[in-house]
Each structure stands twice: as structure tokens, then as C-alpha cells.
Specification:
By secondary structure, the protein is mostly helical. It contains nine helices and no strands.
């Protein structure tokens, strides 16, 4: 009879995710994964498969967590327009932002060589776009954005701007410059149309 697992799968996936996030896929060794997970090779592979399968599981968990957080943040704001502005300024306030976005980092590193990573990234960005688009539509209903705004087109522009701020933060730009950039983008993409 097989022994029950004596580890927290989410905790292991989080540790592995952080290793891939900090070092990248190629630079992460099996020894690194064993060290951060606290598991031996046999346990790691039995539970998660090989390095690539483990990476894909960690990436999917990261994306699921990101979408859950985005959905909550957009829904919690009293006004949708404030939520959309927060979307642009949030990366500036995140102390871990210098790591960038795991999905964007992984797509940059592996997208050309791994169609599964590219497909996952495409689907993830489409989900993010849909969530932001729903918030844009809410801002229209609240009278804060023009009725003729295309919610998906604006959502894509906001997502591209947000990812650009995340990327710029990785270059070492100071918080004041990043904040000014985020506010400038918000003023252009989300002008105040309320009475």
C-alpha cells in the first residue's frame, strides 16, 4: 500500500514557483527544486512529474492565483474606474515587482521553444482581458467611461500598459518615476468623463 503524502502540495508548489520566478526555468536545476521543496527526487517526480511538468503546474497555479486576485481587486472597488486606475498603479506598490510577472518572464524565456507555455500565456492574457473588460463595462454603466468605448480594446490597452510598468520596474526605475508613469497612463487611457 502506498504511503500517504506527508507534505503540503500548495506549499511545495509555491516554493517551486518562487525558485522558477527568481532564477528562470533553464537556470533552475533539479537540486534547486529538491532544496526549495524539501523533497527528494523520487517524491518530487512521483507527486509532480518531471521538471517541465512541475514548472507547468506551478505556472498554472500562479495564473489561477493572479486571476483570483484580479477578480477580487476589480470587484471590491466602490467604483469601477477606481479599480481600473488601481490596476495601473498596483505594480508600483508591490515590493516584489522587481521580479516581474512570472507569466511574462516565462513566456519571454520559453514561448518560442515551448508551444504549451505560449498557449497557456495566450489563454491567461485573454482571461485577464475579459476580467478587465467586464470592469470597463461596469465603469460605462456607472457613467465614468463613454458608452462608445470598446471594453475589450480598452482592457487590452490597460493590460499592456500594466505589463509595461511591471517591465519598467525590473530595470530599476525608482518608485516616483514609476508612479508618475502609471498616473500619466491612467490620465490618457481613463480620462474622467463623469459630470
Amino acid at each position: 500500500m502506498a504511503r500517504p503524502r506527508s507534505f503540503d502540495e500548495k506549499q511545495v508548489l509555491n516554493a517551486v514557483r518562487d525558485q522558477f520566478w527568481d532564477a528562470g526555468y533553464a537556470a533552475t536545476s533539479l537540486e534547486d527544486l529538491m532544496r526549495v521543496s524539501g523533497l527528494g527526487k523520487g517524491s518530487l517526480y512521483a507527486a509532480f512529474g518531471d521538471k517541465r511538468q512541475l514548472f507547468l503546474r506551478a505556472l498554472r497555479a500562479y495564473t489561477d492565483d493572479s486571476h483570483r486576485s484580479l477578480r477580487e481587486a476589480l470587484a471590491e472597488a466602490p467604483r469601477a474606474l477606481d479599480a481600473l486606475r488601481m490596476l495601473l498603479e498596483a505594480p508600483v506598490d508591490d515590493s516584489g515587482v522587481r521580479r516581474g510577472c512570472l507569466l511574462a518572464n516565462s513566456t519571454s524565456e520559453l514561448g518560442n521553444a515551448d508551444p504549451e507555455v505560449l498557449d497557456h500565456a495566450h489563454r491567461a492574457y485573454e482571461t485577464s482581458t475579459a476580467l478587465i473588460g467586464d470592469c470597463v463595462a461596469r465603469a460605462q454603466r456607472e457613467g465614468d467611461l463613454p458608452a462608445d468605448t470598446d471594453p475589450i480594446a480598452l482592457a487590452r490597452a490597460l493590460l499592456a500598459a500594466q505589463q509595461g510598468i511591471v517591465f519598467m520596474s525590473r530595470t530599476g526605475l525608482d518608485t516616483a518615476t514609476l508612479t508618475a508613469t502609471a498616473r500619466s497612463l491612467a490620465a490618457r487611457l481613463l480620462p474622467d468623463h463623469s459630470g
